[in-house]
């Protein structure tokens, strides 16, 4: 990036009519991003008080790695989250970002996540047992949503039987914020209140080793986190742990329904699952993009960005950039280039990436094992807004009934 001269010239040549919270974008996000990318990698939209949209791999990668010029501290959403305090650690900048992430790094490490696989299998077995004899189910409502939610509550040390209440509020915050801010903020307030109650429980009870206890007793530079920091950190655990993995899994299951040859390959050769996981992450990225705030005047891809302006880094656009991925709209389990940006890149790379991958593989493996001939039984239903997470609300399927395991 270089110092900018004039913003007006760039905006005049780069204005686009683009709203990532629209129904049109929800229904055709990849087509929309491809069309934008064909007009230029960095363009300006007047929606939501104006923002830049970055759609190619090179621009998204550059911005994501440059925390000094593309700050996460204000809000990673467009429009801004509406929360009175930063959602930590995602809405922070280095070095605070690394210091905050260090508090929960161990629970999300590859080794710890691997040790959680029996828990994932146990929950998956229980959930599938509940519908396997029926020969029909809603895979989102009955598996891909409850499993990540229950596991996250278990990790946090919360009552996992209350998963539905947590999920309903998380969905309001993520999927309704741009269209019904009051409902989203009411749900957010309820979440924060309950997180505050759990915080006090941790302080009054004997020490525990759960994830939330780590946050409650966490510190930065020897200074304990305050109440606001603790509850906002817990808030992020809920947002990240209860929606995106279900979004990835449901998007991918839909692909296996409409492309049965892919499903058969995985049934025949389960060793393909790790490579398939990376390809589904690239092709069906649930978090389509996150925002940054420009901190100084600069030029990027010929466009003049001004300090204080907002930029939306479209991970999904980068992941289907034909300059980087050959035949990007195709799902290719044998693809050699696996350097997708589904989890972001740099200091803000998704803290829960290991956990998401493992849960995804377990759910896909269990489905292919226990209901291998699953097929669509009706129209899949998406959430009305894909601006934050592109995900299915319902995925009705039918299959040959099978026996319970327990």
TrEMBL record:
GO terms for molecular function: heme binding; iron ion binding; monooxygenase activity; oxidoreductase activity, acting on paired donors, with incorporation or reduction of molecular oxygen. Keywords: Heme, Iron, Metal-binding, Monooxygenase, Oxidoreductase. It comes from the Bacteria. SUPFAM superfamilies: Cytochrome P450. Transmembrane segments: none annotated. Belongs to the cytochrome P450 family. PANTHER family: P450, PUTATIVE (EUROFUNG)-RELATED (PTHR46696:SF6). This is Cytochrome P450. The lineage of its organism: Bacteria, Bacillati, Actinomycetota, Actinomycetes, Cryptosporangiales.
């Amino acid at each position: 990036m270089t110092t900018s001269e004039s913003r007006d010239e760039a905006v005049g040549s780069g204005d686009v009519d683009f709203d990532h919270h629209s129904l049109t974008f929800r229904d055709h996000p990849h087509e929309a991003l491809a069309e934008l990318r064909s007009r230029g990698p960095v363009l300006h939209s007047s929606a939501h008080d104006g923002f830049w949209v970055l759609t190619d791999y090179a621009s998204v990668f550059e911005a994501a790695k440059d925390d000094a010029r593309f700050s996460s501290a204000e809000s990673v959403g467009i429009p801004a989250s509406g929360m009175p305090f930063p959602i930590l650690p995602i809405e922070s900048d280095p070095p605070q970002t690394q210091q905050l992430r260090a508090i929960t790094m161990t629970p999300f490490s590859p080794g710890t996540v691997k040790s959680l696989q029996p828990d994932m299998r146990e929950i998956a077995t229980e959930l599938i047992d509940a519908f396997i004899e029926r020969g029909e189910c809603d895979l989102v409502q009955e598996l891909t949503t409850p499993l990540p939610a229950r596991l996250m509550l278990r990790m946090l040390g919360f009552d996992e039987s209350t998963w539905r209440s947590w999920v309903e509020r998380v969905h309001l915050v993520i999927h309704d914020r741009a269209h019904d801010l009051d409902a989203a903020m009411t749900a957010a307030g309820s979440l924060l209140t309950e997180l505050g109650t759990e915080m006090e429980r941790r302080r009054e009870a004997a020490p525990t080793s759960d994830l939330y206890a780590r946050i409650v007793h966490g510190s930065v530079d020897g200074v304990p986190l305050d109440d606001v920091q603790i509850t906002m950190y817990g808030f992020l655990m809920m947002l990240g742990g209860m929606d995106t993995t279900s979004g990835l899994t449901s998007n991918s299951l839909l692909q296996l329904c409409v492309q049965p040859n892919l499903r058969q390959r995985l049934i025949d050769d389960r060793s393909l699952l790790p490579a398939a996981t990376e390809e589904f992450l690239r092709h069906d990225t649930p978090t389509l993009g996150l925002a940054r705030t420009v901190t100084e005047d600069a030029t990027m891809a010929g466009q003049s960005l001004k300090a204080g302006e907002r930029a939306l880094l479209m991970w999904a656009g980068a992941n289907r950039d034909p300059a980087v991925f050959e035949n990007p709209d195709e799902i290719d389990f044998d693809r050699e280039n696996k350097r997708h940006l589904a989890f972001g890149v740099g200091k803000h790379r998704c803290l829960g990436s290991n956990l998401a991958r493992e849960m995804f593989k377990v759910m896909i493996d269990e489905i292919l094992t226990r209901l291998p001939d699953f097929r669509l039984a009706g129209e899949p239903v998406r959430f009305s807004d894909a601006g934050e997470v592109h995900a299915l609300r319902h995925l009705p399927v039918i299959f040959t009934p099978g026996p319970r395991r327990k």
